Fold these 2 entries.
Entry 1:
Amino acid sequence: MGIAPRVVTILSLTFTAALSVPTAAIAQQPTVLRVNTFPTASYSPILVGIANGVFEKRGMKVELQFTPNSDVQREGLAKGAFEIVHAAVDNAVAMVEMAHEDVVIVTGGDTGMNEFMVRPEIKSIADIRGKNLVVDAPNTAYGLLARKILKNAGLVDGRDYTLKPIGGTPLRIEAMEKSPENAAAMLNPPFSFSAKDKGLKSFGRAVDLLGPYQAGGAFVMRKWASANGPLLERYIAAYIESVRMTMAPESRAQVVSLISTRFKQDQKVAERTYEVLVEPRFGLAPDAKFDMDGFRAVLALRAEIEGQWGGKPPAPDKYIDLGYYERAMKLLERR
């Protein structure tokens, strides 16, 4: 009976130690990150990363949101409705120059995989004269690409055709199907493939018609990045891992399934989409690497089509901070 107090003491210490485990676990709950994108295949790596727990392994829970158009997306980022945007990086430039928001681009992603698509009855660029070019927004990203393609063919908006803001790719296809006046648009996978199956025609891929272009990438508010640097770097590291996983041949079946399910596309469209995702210099950029020459083309296009900066594009440094990306790569190297 004399050892009972010692037993009670040992049990008490053991119980106290056991209680401390849930407390530590609670402290390590994943950080929620709200990520906003367009519902296109360019951002398949996020779907793949979520499905395979890549972000959670680095202490994050990604809440993925789809935007109907770039105006809503840009406004949401500025107001703090989400922390990270994946979209055409020209939207970040537009936020800096047009809305005077302090935004910074932190990764690359892809070329946009855009094709200049027209209705079935359009036989040549000249047939677009007097009709509508449907765009997400008239003064950013893929709308500028489409205007440049038409300008190279001698057609100028407001004189030869009308710009019609509609929204994201699915909405542009719907507009083209409903009215013969909506003659042309820039479309990307998987919807560019389903559009072809419905009779729309491609007049060429943007990168073939205009050259390198840094399209999709991640951008954030600079103040948020400064306050959350390690978190952002972990996110970028997880995103790079997700890109690698997406492009790995052994992931093909899963990626095709995710594209089919999340974007409501049939199996064959999803399979064709995967093939372009992994196509060099057209699909996903390995490791989400930023294409500096492609970004200079973004700025040059904005200067030419919108007349911004007096028609002379500025140096890229103002809009990018790849330090977060570089530190994310070091995180990956340490594993």
Note: The two ends are 54 Å apart (CA to CA).
Entry 2:
Amino acid sequence: METNFIETFAGDPWETEICTLSHAFAKREPLNYAVDGLFPLPCLGLVYGHPGTLKSLILADTAMHIAGGLQWLGKAVKKIPVLWVDLDNGKRRTHERFEALARGINLTEEASFYYTSMLPYNAGNSKDTDLLIKRMLSLGIKFLIIDNLGLISPGADENSDAMIAVMSNLRRVAEETGAAVVVVHHQRKSQSARAGETLRGHSSIESAVDLCLLVERDPDSNTINIKSTKSRDVEVYPFAAEFNYDHKEGTNELYRAWFDVVQVEDVSSDRAAELKIMDVVSERPLGNQKIIIEDANRALRVGKNRLRLILGSLVKKGKLKVREGARGAKLYVIE
């Protein structure tokens, strides 16, 4: 009977792919990042926002810095080959932008930066995906950017489960090449209580990715704000950048373009909430939960329910102690 089982399932991938805890405990190389704390290798990420938020430009600037091994907005990068797949801006604009961004950081032609423009790619098609993987492996690509998701899923309703196959193939690209795969996408017009729910399309899109970065920009401003709406790895704190550029003399064409880091006050991350709660308790020792939450909430954009959870977490971590007050009230103190 046992022999028949083996013969029946000869060549079954489950036989070689099932792991045990010996695999989990095996020594692994430390996790590497294309950009420190943002894009682990491998990963599948999305950068999204409304039209005009400069999301493609800021990501192109990221890619240039990675290809050159140059620090990006104060963040360390790993120098690795980059491939940009453009299906949105067209060849002339793509050439112009990359020329200007490269000139902005003095990146030369020798950099391992590759790009295509308007070369069709259907991420829902396994053959197309196999060809992309083959080309990436031949060039050693470890950072892939695709602009944009809607244009690599032709015929698929992005609000349906047809996107599952598209996202699955993109994940396969990341896993088989060891690359960070980052896709540009768009934001819904309607607002939602949770920022991640403004990501346009079927829920399988957000579910499939490791990192979502939302890019926001006020009208007529060259400053953009970036925040994470999903991260499976380390927490990503909000950051900002200012777009700068020069034109070619006598034209409206870009000559040089670059982004400068802008200091931003963090009022929405768990870290910001923890720091604020600790400040409140330090200033008002033996305060009760209501006092602490209300004081912290005035300075943050976190929400009282989340602040209560973070307050409890600080107690569990031993950063705060609880003493019993009148009528069983919980009073908080730093010891």
Note: The radius of gyration is 24 Å.
